[in-house]
Write a structure and sequence with these properties.
This protein is 10% helix and 47% strand. It is mainly β.
Length: 258
């Protein structure tokens, strides 16, 4: 019930905005910062574990089945430099990183390079696991003021593999957009044996809607994965009967600029 109340509050808040947002964010993909100098951004993520069509009456579309919750903060400085920090409940994960945006935020294509340290509990290991990730994100200036493409590509040093994700955002009004993401697992058969044990049989697909207000962004998603970033979602997912759409789950993001 507490999860249901949280969602209802977010839906109500999403309809209160009077102006458009400050940044064209994506639900899970990293996007080059559009924050001004010395501005920051707080993000709260929920990815519910229960499928929306599984025992709907008992789980209320999966909202009573627990969730992977994430909180993060990114701080923009000057000259394209930024730092970020975050925490995920899944595997008690912590991460921190720095990034650099080489091109101006109003350039026709923006890009950002992120270097991130992460640490998490692996159930099969006695001590915590940790390593580094390098990620490049790119995003175009909206075509016809409507269409935005997002690209992530990087390297996960823990699993020793390339990671990637693609995103699309179509603006319907100044305050509402439909969004989609796709995370193809390109090394499902070529990764080393230990890594292949952690790769899912299906690619992750994310569909949703984004509502923009001045200083806030609200995103609501349906996805066959519970992750909330490129490093996790590019590892794929396992679905009943190998049907990616048979295990669709609800999620939401709340972002606030400071």
């Amino acid at each position: 019930m507490k999860h249901l109340i949280s969602v209802l509050v977010l839906l109500l808040m999403a309809g209160t905005g009077m102006l458009w947002a400050y940044q064209d964010s994506s639900p899970n993909l990293a996007t080059p910062t559009a924050l001004e100098d010395m501005e920051g951004e707080f993000t709260l993520n929920h990815r519910f574990y229960g499928a929306v069509d599984n025992n709907v009456g008992d789980t209320f579309f999966g909202l009573n089945s627990g969730a992977n919750v994430g909180v993060s903060y990114r701080q923009n400085f000057r000259y394209g430099l930024e730092a970020n920090i975050g925490k995920l409940t899944a595997k008690n994960e912590f991460y921190a990183g720095i990034s650099y945006r080489p091109a101006p935020k109003d350039f026709i294509v923006r890009a950002q390079v992120d270097l991130q340290y992460f640490s998490f509990d692996e159930p099969s290991q006695a001590d915590r696991r940790s390593n580094m990730m390098l990620l490049i994100s790119a995003q175009n200036k909206p075509l016809y003021d409507r269409l935005t493409l997002n690209l992530n590509i990087g390297y996960d040093a823990y699993y020793q593999r390339l990671i990637n994700g693609l995103g699309l955002s179509i603006k319907l009004t100044d305050k509402a957009s439909i969004i989609g993401e796709y995370y193809p697992v390109i090394d499902r058969t070529s990764a080393n044996y230990d890594t292949r044990l952690y790769l899912g049989e299906d690619d992750v697909v994310v569909l949703g809607a984004k509502f923009d207000t001045y200083g806030h962004q609200f995103m609501f998603t349906l996805s066959n994965g519970e992750g909330m970033d490129t490093r996790h979602l590019s590892m794929g997912t396992n679905s009943p009967n190998s049907n990616p759409m048979a295990n669709v789950k609800f999620g939401f993001n709340l972002q606030r600029r400071f």
